[in-house]
Specification:
The chain is of the alpha+beta class. The chain is built from five helices and nine strands; from the N terminus they run E-E-H-H-H-E-E-E-H-E-H-E-E-E.
Amino acid sequence: MFARTPRLTLRPGWPEDAPAMAQAVAHESVVTMLSSPPWPYTLGDAENFLSQPRAVTDPYCLILRHESAYPDLIGAISITERGGGNELGYWLTPSAWGRGYATEAGNAMLDMARHALGLKRLRSSYFLDNPASGKVLSKLGFRRTGEKLLYSAARGTEAPCVTMEIDLIVEEQTPTFSLAA
């Protein structure tokens, strides 16, 4: 799936994106806030990740900023089926923090979840030491449902995180992005 917002393009990752992805995500301050990626994160990790098959119902989109002449990869956002539910996850490279990109990409992904995937609910979580992510999820309409310990491969241990959820059943809405499958 693809989506375009005023400042961003969300699209699937391709093998040729591996160098840009590795450069964007390979910051300890990013990877330690995620559950799966290892630290240090290498080009081989990006190549492996981008080569994994994805179901249409599990969109993983790279986030490209298109405000300049050359779009640059600034992050990724996904919806993944886990434990009988669907989870929203995302990350941004540090140079893109604090500019509203996560919220903009998140709104596009929520529209995909509602209108293209027909999902009724999404979950998400963030590590307690990443309150900025909690603010993004709150802006998107997620509400807190509890706390749990979550393993982080980069940290090599479990860390406390906040769990959140959003109900996607709303009155008929027009998508806020252009969608192409």
